[in-house]
Amino acid sequence: MRPNDLGPFWLPYTPNRSFKANPRMLVRAEGMYFYDETGRALLDTCAGLWCVNAGHGRKPIVEAIRAAAGELDFAPTFQFGHPAAFALAQRIAALAPEGMDHVFFVNSGSEAADSALKIARAYFQKIGQGGRFRLIGREKGYHGTTFAGISVGGLGNNRRPYGPLLPGTDDHLPLPYDRARMAFTKGEPEGGAEYADALEQLVALHGAETIAAVIVEPMAGSAGVFATPKDYLKRLRALCDKHGILLIFDEVITGFGRLGASFAAERYGVTPDMINFAKGVTNAAVPLGGTIVSNKVHDAFMSGPDHGIELFHGHTYSGHPLACAAGLATLDLYRDEGLFARAKALEPVFAEAVHSLKGAARVTDIRSVGLAAGIDIEPDPAAPGRRGYDAMRQAYAEENLVIRISGDTIALSPPLIATESDIARMVEGIRAIVGWLD
Ligand SMILES: Cc1ncc(COP(=O)(O)O)c(C=O)c1O
Asked: Which of 108, 204, 292, 329 could make a disulfide contact with 61, Cβ separation 3.0–4.6 Å?
């Protein structure tokens, strides 16, 4: 492609001018690898964008999409249905904790956040507690890019350019992380209930009768991989119960095996009221997201006249036939290859390898949980984010690695099919890169 051809596509979350001056063009993918225009193989250390959990180009998924496209290209799910959407909802609900038997489909993790937050507010109106409107997120939280998502989200760069955000979302709980105590932890840090206790202060400030929901990632991914400490989610659940507040887990990253279980809710033995998912549900082959809703919340809507719509919400492509076909084939693959258990078995190997970077040049912290890790690089005080960006470019150019960065943090989240030697290669590549950074 000639440089002029690159102009029209405005890339998301990318420094466009720098990219277009020196593009990184991926043209094919298979298994653990992307391939560039010259046929060079690039090891995928981040499952695309935390989403290609079964590895790239998996034949059963490709075939299922092909077959679906030939059979039913589209069917509306407003007032009509098609079998794959019902089948997939059933399969997803079967993976979720008991009592969470309903699935609302959307197209992305962002829309899932929007949906869960809307369902939370609408639920309280339904049950006669319409005064509950506050939606509480967490510092450094990421829930996608809609106005609702950035409002409950806690990453400054995503919020600051966009003016007044959604009313009722000003409060954020602290990120449950204390570097002095938790740096270089493998897995979940000890304790941490006190970070959840911050909810009591918001209840004291505003009154529980104004709070609808708390939304958290069971592992903060986009902020740079922060596992929640061992006592945190249980305490948060207990406090939400005490005050009648709904608890939403955003499992867009942690769902479908990243933490060695179907959902983080299973790993931590904590059942929220809603679980958001996207990404891994279709192995990223077709966009799909959704919210798994508890029976308590769902059933509250199921009243009123027979002809009356219970929830005025949805998207043209909610439960698109191709996405549902991809989802069904993906869940079969996860099951047949035991990929969630594989991730669990690999976790100690992965942690050991990643933490061997302790002491490497400019590495100031390493956090790991499941098959995810955050490696902090000391920022250039004059240009925060520059070293992270350089690391990503060096990884691509010199080490044949596709890595994900979040500011000056390298986030690793390999496909769950990664071998021990793939993991060793990623880690050695990063060791070399951080050694080069100025
Ligand atoms: C926890 C979480 N929620 C929501 C999203 C947004 O998903 P999408 O990019 O599909 O809108 C992401 C994306 O990384 C995410 O990590």
From this structure: 329
